[in-house]
Description:
The chain has six helices and five strands. By secondary structure, the chain is an alpha/beta fold. It has one domain (3-131): Rossmann fold, CATH 3.40.50. It has a five-stranded parallel β-sheet, with helices on both faces. Helix 3 links the parallel strand 3 (48-52) and strand 4. Helix 2 runs parallel beside helix 3. The longest helix is centred in the last third of the chain and has 14 residues, at 108-121. The termini are far apart.
Amino acid sequence: MKTILLIENNTHIRENLTEYLEMENYRIFATNNGKSGIEIAKEQVPDLIICDVLTHEMPGHQVLPSLLATIQTVGIPFIFSTSMPDKINRTNALKLGADDYIIKPFEIETLLNMANTWITSGSKRRRTISAN
């Protein structure tokens, strides 16, 4: 069973996404804050991380660099989830090392397709690491 770490500030969104993704046969680890998300990622090494940009204790833009600095988490595909539709935010997130970026509200099928794609193909970083 593939695993997804969901770091989502909004309780309602976190619970709904957890329930939906579990129905799609994913094992879900969920938290509302970046610090615990980093701990979970290091302990569980999920197949994908979906992280809200605005999370408690540590924003997503600080979570990702921390994960990229750790050998066991650097290759995990990482999707930012945000309600900020600004193209600059998307560009900055991708420059920071995110594999993808999805804007809320989104269709759950869009997120599921994105998740399946990244879990199947792996992170761009992992492919780069493997090539070296």
